[in-house]
Design a protein that fits this description.
Length: 75
């Protein structure tokens, strides 16, 4: 179950994207920079790195499955 704080963050994220006329994404990870997140695009299924509050997006992988398969564990 998603916590209420996480739910509010996801809803806020979607509202900002609507205001910027961007396709909706759901973030799955944060980066060292608090303004950058890893997200899954709901329209294309691509995994992207996006800068919050801006239109800046970089495609990291064509799908969540290929993104997860490309990860290398750090031991």
């Amino acid at each position: 179950m998603i916590s209420s704080g996480c739910r509010r963050n996801l809803i806020g994220h979607l509202l900002v994207q609507k205001r910027l006329k961007l396709s909706p994404t759901l973030f799955i990870a944060t980066l060292d920079s608090e303004l950058e997140v890893i997200s899954v695009c709901n329209m294309s299924g691509e995994v992207i790195k996006e800068t919050l509050g801006t239109r800046k997006r970089t495609t990291l992988s064509p799908s969540l499955a290929s993104f997860l398969n490309s990860l290398k564990p750090v031991l």
